[in-house]
Design goal:
By secondary structure, the chain is of the alpha/beta class. Strands 1-2-3-4-5-6-7-9 form an eight-stranded parallel barrel, surrounded by nine helices. Helix 7 links the parallel strand 6 and strand 7. The chain starts with 11 loop residues before the first strand and ends with a helix. The N terminus is likely disordered.
Length: 339
């Protein structure tokens, strides 16, 4: 498939954080680090800072996503804060409208609402969340439209309103890792964020479907594409590869059905891998940049050229918080030098 002809200079850069809980640490430190990272992201010049909803994950502290967004928004002043995303099948649209309407009222023009249709957890936990015993992900398009109505100006005679929420026009994003999300975002005229950082299989097809099928809306006049991208930057390629072993261990644990807290990096990691492990990790490598500044800049530029992304949302799970901050600082330097 041909690469997309666009100007890299227009690409924005953002951060997706899962508030990782390290081995030997706790959720308190993870949430403190989340805020600290957002404050640095603001200084580094990132466009937005999103946190993701996951449940029953020992290594992720962002389950109460709207609460974490409020915590981060309160500790920053300019950067946009949002969800990457809220898993809508877990919630009533009215409750989400009230939560994000409240956030938008407290922090005007700074809140994004990214929406996904996966539960963000296993089936048993999904049942424990029990928004309803009869709902399903198939209700997702209808729920998104209901949310749009809650954020719009109230209509005369409207029986149910989100207060706060009505008239706030919180911008909605559709998140996805398949063709479904691309088609829905195009049909509704919404920005689309593709989870290429962990599910790149249908990436180029989803991009094409979104762009070709896009219908302008009140929120968005033309397609806007955000792509998930893994970053692990260090002072050298060797350091970056070593630091990255934490996220790779965590990823393999998740795929094995044993999600864990973020482990410390280890040496000789490759020698411990099975052939199945290597196949799983090779897929992640398609949408990743690892190394020092030159490697990060080159790989990010190549990915932008391939996808025509309007924005990259970067994620980086590194055990040492100071090293993680430096990883994003290097990524920011790379992004600015590409521009």
């Amino acid at each position: 498939m041909a690469t997309f002809d666009r100007r890299i200079i227009m690409t924005q850069f953002s951060i997706l954080d899962l508030a990782p809980i390290k081995q030997g640490s706790n959720a308190t430190e993870a949430l403190q680090n989340c805020l600290d990272l957002a404050q640095h992201a603001e200084v580094f010049g990132f466009e937005r800072f999103w946190v993701a909803e996951h449940h029953n994950m020992q290594g992720i502290a962002s389950a109460a996503t709207a609460v974490v967004i409020g915590h981060v928004a309160n500790g920053t002043s300019r950067i946009r804060i949002g969800s990457g995303g809220i898993m809508l099948p877990n919630h009533s649209p009215l409750v989400i409208a009230e939560q994000f309407g409240t956030l938008a009222s407290l922090y005007p023009d700074r809140i994004d609402l990214g929406l996904g249709r996966a539960p963000g957890t296993d089936q048993i936990t999904s049942h424990a969340l029990r928004r309803t015993l009869h709902g399903s992900a198939e209700d997702f398009p209808r729920d998104v439209i209901e949310l749009q109505q809650y954020f719009a100006e109230p209509e005369e005679g409207q029986k149910v309103m989100a207060v706060p929420g009505a008239g706030t026009h919180v911008p909605l994003w559709i998140l996805g890792s398949s063709l479904f999300g691309a088609q829905l975002a195009a049909m509704l005229g919404l920005p689309f964020a593709f989870a290429s950082h962990f599910a790149p299989a249908q990436m180029l097809q989803a991009i094409e479907l979104y762009r070709e099928g896009f219908k302008p809306s009140a929120q968005l006049a033309q397609p806007y594409l955000m792509m998930g991208y893994n970053i692990c930057a260090g002072e050298s390629l060797e350091e970056a590869e070593y630091l990255r072993t934490s996220s790779l261990q965590s990823f393999l644990n998740l795929r094995r059905g044993k999600p864990s807290q973020l482990p410390p990096p280890i040496k000789n990691f490759e020698k411990q891998l099975t052939r199945e492990d290597e196949m799983l990790l090779s897929q992640m490598g398609r949408c990743s940049a690892i190394g020092a500044l030159p490697e990060i800049k080159s790989e990010m530029a190549e990915f932008i050229s391939l996808t025509g992304a309007d924005e990259l949302i970067l994620t980086s799970s590194i055990y040492d918080h100071s090293k993680r901050l430096r990883s994003f600082e290097i990524a920011a330097e790379a992004g600015h030098s590409i521009k």
